[in-house]
Amino acid sequence: MSSRIVRPAPVDGDAVDVDVQVVPRASRTRVVGIHGERVKIQLAAPPVDGAANKALVELFAGLLKIPRAAVELTSGPSSKRKTLRLHGVTLDAVREALELDGAGAPIGGRERGRSSRRRSLAGGDLPAVDRRLRKRGLSALAVATLALPVVAGGCESNSSLHLRVILPEGDADLDRADNAALVLDPGGPELSYDIDGTDFTLEVELDLDDVQRVAYLYLARGPDLLAWGRTAPFVLAEAGEDLALFLGRPGALSTFPGAVSGAEGMVAARARGRGMVLVAEDGGTFLLSERDLGIEAGDDFPAATPPASASALVDAADGAVIRARWDGDLTAWRFDPGADAWEEVALVGDDALGTREGAAWIVDASAEHLLLLGGGAVSDIVELSLVPDGDGALDVGRLELALDGPRAGSTAAWVVRDGTDEGEGLLLFGGDQDDLPLAYFTAAEPAGPTLRWTGAACAQVERGADASAEAILRVLCFGGLRDGSPTADAALIRVSPGGPLEVEHLEAWLPEPFADPRLFADESAIYAQSEGRWLRVDRGGLTPELSATAATRATGGHSVNLGTGVTFLVGGVTAEGQPTDRWQVFTPSPDVP
């Protein structure tokens, strides 16, 4: 390792030059370690309007406890490869801050950032990840991979974009693949290849540019699509080598490779532009990056674990995650994946809401507000902002609209018409009472039979152009518990433009009871998983079809949609009461770009 990476600067006084290579739009800002002849730095900031350079300066100023003015960018302001001049510091101080020895090599013979603190999901890094993450209640995940180097040409300095492709566990059928297609969108190219199974490498020459695009990979047997996946958005000129995609079967669950421990009591939510944040029962916090599908251990949740029946972990529009609890006065914490930090957030307004166990909750389409609906003995609707104001506080208050009862254990769903955010209004289905109509709707009178029905799954049938301003919209609700027992019943709720609700009770509609269904969807169908079974409901005929699935989850757990279009099913317990030891991934039927 060359000692010239960190070297005395050719100026009077104490100053040190450091050669760095930056990777913008990373899951968080951190020093990774030695990469070739430079120190690799991941930056949460994008390379827009100098944001990445500003973040780089702030990182080194913080590491060395020097003013930002003492960090000078001497070369590469618009390049990934830069040189920093650090004034008022010694060579030893810089090496210590970067964890380098006197020769400029990583202390202990390892690269910073490749310790047990941070690991890709790749198998070669598994032992150290396992030791670190098992302490936090989550074991590492192994993956099967294949390399996909995309050789960028058309410029003086060629570089390679390596797409790490993660294959589903136990799916030997993919070995039948005889052709593959690689698509970069927008701007192409769209390329096809003859292959023999999953042991192949694809190469394509591209011009480096600053266009943000995604890569799609399709595997097929003849004309039949076997699996596909897509990456998170990237820029060729800045992509580096930390890009991955998961290949999953369309319209089905595929098993994400590797065993997971500590899933019981775990909650999860999307962090927009980042990936998936998971919080273990002991407070251990992790981020699964949607960019490289690597997992990082983060800052611990700073308080006692709230009860599942009176709390939620939700995504916010600014890329953070909010954890709220309402088993007493409303309390909220905010986790910023970029800063790797939890903080309790001040609430402005009426946070003395009283106990509201079993309150239904839902986030609006903009991810700017969380609505708490009834629960306990109250029938009001509370709105909590998810994006802090200028003082870092979240607004909270009661809406003028009230429910027809507490409806604890009900299911909330937006009813949306094409071209709108929230469209027709908010639907609440069921609840732990037998004296209220089955369906409450903010834009019409409650309707339906009076049934005690909790934990159902509800999905709007019409989407896009089919959900026009003139259309009668249908919401299908099914499964859950009726009078405390698993049910095979369903209900079809019709929402006419400006008209009354119509509720049709469909007794024994499912082939078997679905006690705690988790929903998934694509343009062609609605899907649900429960107790080792997979349900598909075609949007046209609304006919339920049951099939087996490798997913062993019976109850609990969370489904989290990532920006790559896939939905992770994590956590929960099996029918035997054991924590699930695998993650599942739902891949929708593709919309070919």
Give a written overview of the molecule.
The chain is globular, with a radius of gyration of 26 Å. The protein has 4 domains: 6-115, YggU-like (Conserved Hypothetical Protein Mth637, Chain: A, 2-Layer Sandwich), CATH 3.30.1200; 144-254; 302-408, no CATH class; 409-549. By secondary structure, the protein is mainly beta. Strands 1, 2, 3, 4, 5 and 6 form a 6-stranded mixed β-sheet that branches. A 5-stranded antiparallel β-sheet has the order 7-21-20-19-18, covered by helices on one side. Strands 10, 11, 13, 14 and 15 form a 5-stranded antiparallel β-sheet that branches. β33 and β34 (444-450) form a beta hairpin. It has 3 helices and 48 strands.
